[in-house]
């Protein structure tokens, strides 16, 4: 057990409607509360959203964080607009959480992972729910884009997918084996040489022809020829689902974008939308794409906070999601983040402890 909380703090007040006002404010605030030992009060939770307050997937994140931090929690109810959370420390262990819906398992994992990276013992977490969700990083992104960067920082995290879970049926499951270590930051300014590229298309309870059409469309539009690694996967599950994931692996970073099948949308259209998104990344020289930027911010800020070092990375111009994330990180850690344009397609982000 690690206990960063060696004296009583006042609650840090977090405005849940800040910026884009989504669930990320809750997840990042819980993660940072666990790591710093700082009790928090989040008010006006998702106030600007059509369905405001805590939803089922957010409650699983709160429950997971409460377990890892043996925290005192008040307000963890469906639809609640205010939540208080006071952790007692960081407690490594074997945990299993079931979202009970198709809510994102990867987002719950990312809520507790930063703390467990800093625990004094290894942990294993297993989460049941959705593994491939349109508004969250799919398992493949976690495994191939996010965790390689985590593992370069010193810890070792291995991910296993037991079952696929698509919206709306869910029923998926992933596990993480976490070997903690002190976080070492590094600069991430260039992608490095392209190592491989390709796409994987998955269908659950649907014809494999859908996956093949997606791969054909992606390969043709990106002019891959025979060098690309293309894989069609057919799985059984509690409900239908489809995702196509386009991947570019470089020496220093892997970028992945995902298109999700929807009823009434052709396989060709699903793949074309994913191609359009990866092209935004390919026309820039930035190291990180939009979603990886968002997730890297928290990890690299923690390394800066822990060690007093300063670090930089290049990325696509940050989304409102990332801008909100920067504000939350600064509130907890006192890490100053500067964003400077490089050109129309890229920015340089610098972080230093104030």
Q: Can you tell me about this structure?
A:
The protein is globular. Helices cover 33% and strands 28% of the residues. The chain is α+β, with helices and mostly antiparallel strands and 354 residues long. Among the domains are: 194-282, 2-Layer Sandwich (Dihydrodipicolinate Reductase, domain 2), CATH 3.30.360; 285-354, Translation Initiation Factor IF3, CATH 3.30.110. Helix 4 packs parallel to helix 7. The protein is built from 8 helices and 15 strands. The strands form 4 sheets. It has a 4-stranded mixed β-sheet with strand order 1-2-4-3, with helices on one face. Strands 5-6-8-7 form a 4-stranded mixed β-sheet, with helices on one face.
- CATH level 4 superfamily of the domain at 194-282: RNA 3'-terminal phosphate cyclase, insert domain
Number of helices: 8
User: Biggest sheet: strands, sense, closure?
Assistant: 4 strands, mixed
Biggest sheet, spatial arrangement of strands: 1-2-4-3
Instruction: Write down the CATH topology of the domain at 194-282.
Output: Dihydrodipicolinate Reductase, domain 2
Task: Identify the overall geometry.
Answer: globular
- Fraction in helix: 25-40%
Separation, N- and C-terminal Cα atoms? 29 Å
The number of strands is 15
What is the CATH architecture annotation of the domain at 194-282?
Answer: 2-Layer Sandwich
Which blocks of ≥5 consecutive residues have pLDDT under 50?
2-7
CATH class of the domain at 194-282: Alpha Beta
Structural class: alpha+beta
**Rg calc:** 20 Å
Order of helices and strands: EHEHEEEHEHEEEHEEEHHEHEE
* Beta-strand proportion: 25-35%
The residue-averaged pLDDT reads 93
